[in-house]
UniProtKB/TrEMBL annotation:
Enzyme Commission number, as recorded: 2.4.1.-
Keyword Ubl conjugation attributed: no
Source organism phylogeny: Bacteria, Bacillati, Actinomycetota, Actinomycetes, Pseudonocardiales
Keyword Cell membrane among UniProt keywords: yes
Function of the molecule: Protein O-mannosyltransferase that catalyzes the transfer of a single mannose residue from a polyprenol phospho-mannosyl lipidic donor to the hydroxyl group of selected serine and threonine residues in acceptor proteins.
Broad class of where this protein is predominantly found: membrane
Name of the molecule in the record: Polyprenol-phosphate-mannose--protein mannosyltransferase
Membrane-crossing segments per the record: 73-93, 187-204, 211-228, 234-258, 270-292
């Protein structure tokens, strides 16, 4: 039945893709940079469809994907995403005192006018927000002390200090420090270049779709920020990259574990390597916990937490 048409079969509703559209729309409701992931995943899934049709022996996989997969993809990655995004504004829509809620006045009391006014107000308000942040550039000589650029994010070279108090008590010494930093666990983040290089190699040399998904999502969270380097940026912009960093490293650890057809000694050694690495990550996180949680620590411990000059 796959080859009954030169374009391949119609695949109907794919609920996993519908769920992805909902989650991506909710992500855009948290931060508009979710749009980068919408575009990346939309393109990626269509390319997956092309590859699947080709692997199934479809005569014209590209035309098949264009005619039978693109329209459902647009419906999900545009229609579903927009509806999910608008749903995150339900409290604002239902409010009479929300910021700029009635920026665009309604022309009547009928439902069409009310909806038009609500959506118009949201669009105008969003336009103002976008313009403000687009024009929020770093002026020479007035940089934010914890500002960073995207090339520093993969390895967490410039974290961000949220809170600092050098006169707290409770650490057992006369001088205590309490600080809260946004900082990545080095045992994870410092492997980002390795993960990315390995993932690209697996994609190119082995056509491994798992790495294609992870690397595409990781780069969707990083590359767009290079477009406008003059604007103010901070390490927390890299937060969406974190789960894909972990997924990429996890896939890599799977190669150390090996497969069932490998000998017991190889499997045992692989398990040992993975266990030691996971233990290192946990120990590294525990060490950093005081400055992640704002605990009261000694001045010596505070200085010992700051491994790199760029962390200060």
């Amino acid at each position: 039945w796959v080859r009954e048409s030169r374009y391949g079969p119609r695949l109907g509703v794919r609920w996993w893709r519908l769920g992805a559209g909902v989650l991506l729309g909710l992500a855009c409701g948290v931060k508009w940079s979710g749009l980068y992931f919408v575009a990346a995943f939309a393109l990626l899934t269509v390319l997956f469809d092309v590859a699947a049709r080709r692997a199934a022996g479809v005569a014209s996989p590209w035309w098949g994907a264009l005619l039978r997969d693109v329209v459902p993809a647009v419906w999900v990655f545009v229609g579903v995403v927009v509806v999910a995004y608008l749903s995150t504004w339900w409290a604002w829509f239902g409010s009479e005192t929300g910021l700029d809620r009635h920026l665009v006045a309604t022309s009547g009391g009928d439902p069409v006018s009310v909806v038009r006014g609500a959506l118009g107000s949201l669009f105008t308000y969003s336009e103002h927000v976008l313009r403000f942040h687009s024009e929020l550039v770093t002026k020479p000589g007035s940089q934010h002390p914890w500002e960073s650029k995207p090339w520093a994010w993969p390895m967490g070279l410039r974290p961000m200090l949220y809170y600092y108090d050098g006169s707290t008590t409770g650490c057992g010494e006369t001088r205590c420090v309490s600080a809260t930093m946004l900082i990545g666990t080095p045992a994870l983040w410092w492997l980002a270049p390795v993960m990315l290089g390995w993932g690209l190699w697996r994609m190119g040399a082995h056509r491994d779709w798992r790495y294609a998904a992870v690397v595409t999502a990781y780069l969707a969270g990083l590359l767009p920020w290079f477009v406008n380097l003059d604007r103010q940026m901070y390490f927390f912009y890299a937060t969406p990259m974190a789960p894909f960093l972990v997924l990429g490293i996890t896939l890599g650890l799977g190669h150390f574990l090996g497969t069932r057809d490998m000998g017991p000694e190889r499997r045992r050694n692989g398990l040992l390597v993975v266990a030691l690495y996971v233990g290192l990550v946990v120990a590294n996180f525990v060490w950093l916990w005081p400055i992640l949680n704002g605990d009261s620590i000694t001045e010596w411990r505070w200085q010992a937490e700051l491994w790199l000059p760029s962390w200060r």
